[in-house]
Amino acid sequence: MDNAATNPAGNAIVVDKLTLEYGTQILFRRFSLIVPAGQKVLLVGSSGSGKSSLVRCLLGFVIPQEGTIAIDGTILDGKTVWPLRRKIGYVSQEPQLGAGKVKDLIQLPFTYHANAHLKYDSSGQARLFEQFRLGGALLDKDISELSGGEKQRVALVISLLLGRSIYLLDEATSALDAEAKAAVLDYFRQRPDLTVLMVSHDTAIAAIADRTVTMSPVTAQEAV
Amino acid sequence: MMNAADAIHPLALTAGYLMLLIPLAIIHWYRVPMLGQTISSVLRMTIQLILVGLYLQVVFRLNNPWLNTAWLLVMITVADLSILKGAQFRFGRLAAWLFAALLVGTAIPLFIFVGVILTRPEILDARYVIPIGGMILGNCLRADIIGIRTFYQSIRTGQKAYELALSQGATIAEAVRPYLRESIYQALTPTVATMANVGIVSLPGMMTGVIIGGNDPLTAIGYQIAIMLSIFTGTAITVFLAILLSARSAFSPYGILKQAIFKT
Description:
Chain A has one domain (11-223): P-loop containing nucleotide triphosphate hydrolases (Rossmann fold, 3-Layer(aba) Sandwich). Helices cover 26% and strands 25% of the residues of chain A. Chain A has seven helices and nine strands; from the N terminus they run E-E-E-H-E-E-H-E-H-H-H-E-H-E-E-H. Chain A has helices at 51-58, 81-85, 102-107, 122-131, 148-161, 178-189, 220-223, and strands at 11-22, 25-36, 40-45, 66-71, 74-75, 88-91, 166-170, 195-199, 211-215. In chain A, strand 7, helix 6 and strand 8 (195-199) form a beta-alpha-beta unit.
């Protein structure tokens, strides 16, 4: 674990002494992590070590019992969470994109008030589709017709079109074949401006990570 | 002025109770697990209606606008508690918001019906306000249970989709839009279906009452159309307001649905 300092500028994510418990189950205790801007960090650990929960904490979906989170130097709380979410792109293992045609779901976030300053970039979308090995015909399909891997890549395309600077990828390439996975990883490798925190059991992802952070489940002894 | 319907002698009602032996026999014979519940419901219905009948006699005789309003508020309060129970929610702030939604959703069509359509000078006349208010409220209650339960349960089960919308920059109002759409659809569908089939599949209560009261069917149709439109308007207002108002206390400052609102 990293020793987190306060929230100096230049750090995209600062997790400071975070404790998360669900009833009697302690997922992590006083966990700290610093991710400097532009760094690619791979988060590994056995099931139940709290990797996905940490990602959900960073988005304000789960509130830890102790500790603080800072995104781009701003402490995450009930007020700042709204502007801070606009800095983060989030893709989970099974992205639930809603119901309807793919092209409509890709454009949906651009109708949100918070994204009013963004313009939907159809040529950017076409480029990303090509780069991530997605056929253009997919746009007219219903989302329910897509495979798990296609949904993951569509979710990645949406988050990238939104122009976020920090990406939380929670097993976001787990359903991709080797070629599509390489294409996605290549994309992030070529973007030094993007900060990426990846949760994965896949060692291939370590190749693009600047470093790997291991989360361990809190043992009964530690929990006392 | 309508004619009075023929009164039913209490002893004559015995025939009605004897008729119950048929469904009770079926329930008993096939061991459908609702014998006790059915008997209890029939007893409750009888006692409740006797008490309400006695009370309403007093209310109708006095015909005091304040008393009529108080009775309407009692009806709304009972409906409010029934919604919380039926939708499996905990009491608390939600109860106040749902009460407000029911009050507005019932009052608007009720006063349009009595004051504008029937052009009654005394809008709070017990003879109109209580039965018509009761019909609107009863439908609002049923629609509200469906609407509220669908809304919050679908956000709960579709948590990942909801959270993804938040992560993409949606406000709570934007993220809940698909769930709001679905819950309003679910809540209003029964009333829409009833309107489409009314008069063909069954003669509805209001029309039946007006005909039994001694009026011609065309008069009864006028009442029936007015009540159906009032019910639809009332249910739409109630469900929409109930979701809109209750959402104010059902989500955390982070936009996350509070699990504490659910009983289970």
